[in-house]
Amino acid sequence: MISGHTEQYRVMEEPARRPLIVVGMGGHGRVLMDIARVSKTYRLAAVLDDRFSGVELRGGLPYGPIATLKHFLADEPGMHVVIGIGDNRTRRAIVEMLSLPESSYAVLVHPAAVVAEDARIGLGAVVMPGAVIGPGAVVGAHAIINSGAVVEHDALVGPFAHVSPNATMAGAASAEEGAHIGSGAVLIPRIRVGSWSVLGAGGVAVRDIPGGKTAVGVPARVVQPRLSVEKAL
Questions:
Q1: How far is Cα 135 from Cα 123, in angstroms, rounded to an integer?
Q2: Residue 35's domain spans which residues?
Q3: Which of 6, 27, 150, 200 would bridge with 232, disulfide CB 3.0–4.6 Å?
Q4: What is the pLDDT of residues 149-176, one digit of tens each?
Q5: What is this structure's pTM?
């Protein structure tokens, strides 16, 4: 240090994390709770699920029924919400029931995910650890990009869709609204899975899958009669 000179250091403070409510405490909800705990953007403020009849504290965190959500939003300005329900139709039904302003919803991205700078992620969407979202990709509102999933460049994931663990959507592939891409499934480039369709686990889509259908196998073929989501996955 130079004689007579006093070194001064500025302590960099991390920005305050925004409060977050997770709606749903099943398996998917618990994963979102864990992401919130390691997030640099949000802090877990409450968990709501209709398995609770009233508000109770667990480890200092409030738990209560979904009906109490608006009370939490009123009590703490800047509160954000994410729906911790894995089933696409149920997640959409809850969003419709809550009727919140779009700006109330968080975009929850695990710090171990890789998201291209120009990728777009809709409000309410969640991105799990190890997921990769490539340049130009678009992820719709309330969609799920699960652990280890790959959404390549220019691919499209519609609102309320779910790309399951280790599934791969190649460049410019699309999964439209409410589509479910099963674990380990693959969409080759520019292939489309229609709205509310299912590509079963391990399936490889080499041709478009129409809306409202279930396809399984390698190459994936539409199953008639239609399988339930549970059997297909």
A1: 18
A2: 18-104
A3: 200
A4: 999 999 999 999 999 999 999 999 999 9
A5: 0.88
Residues of the chain with pLDDT under 50: 1-13, 226-233
Catalytic residue among 5, 110, 153, 162: 153
pLDDT at 172: 98
**Structure tokens belonging to residue 105:** 């919803």
**Torsion, Cα of 176, 179, 185, 189 (10° steps):** -10
CA gap 124, 95 in Å, rounded: 9
* Nearest Cα to Cα of residue 214 among 191, 181, 184, 174: 181
How far is residue 15's CA from residue 32's CA, in Å, rounded to a whole number?
21
Per DSSP, what are the bridge partners of residue 169?
Answer: 151, 187
CB 81 within 8 A of CB 9: no
Instruction: Say whether 110 is catalytic.
Output: no
Are residues 113 and 226 both part of a single domain? yes
Q: Helix, strand or coil for residue 9?
A: coil
pLDDT at position 15:
62
CA distance 86 to 6: 57
User: What's the structural domain count of the chain?
Assistant: 2
Q: Which residues of 106-120 are buried (b: 16+ CB within 10 A; e: fewer)?
A: bbbbbeebebeeebe
Q: Which residues, in sequence order, are bridge partners of residue 215?
A: 199, 222
Q: How far is 177 from 116, CA to CA, in rounded Å? A: 22
Q: How much is the pLDDT for 193?
A: 98
Q: How many CB atoms lie within 10 A of CB 79?
A: 18
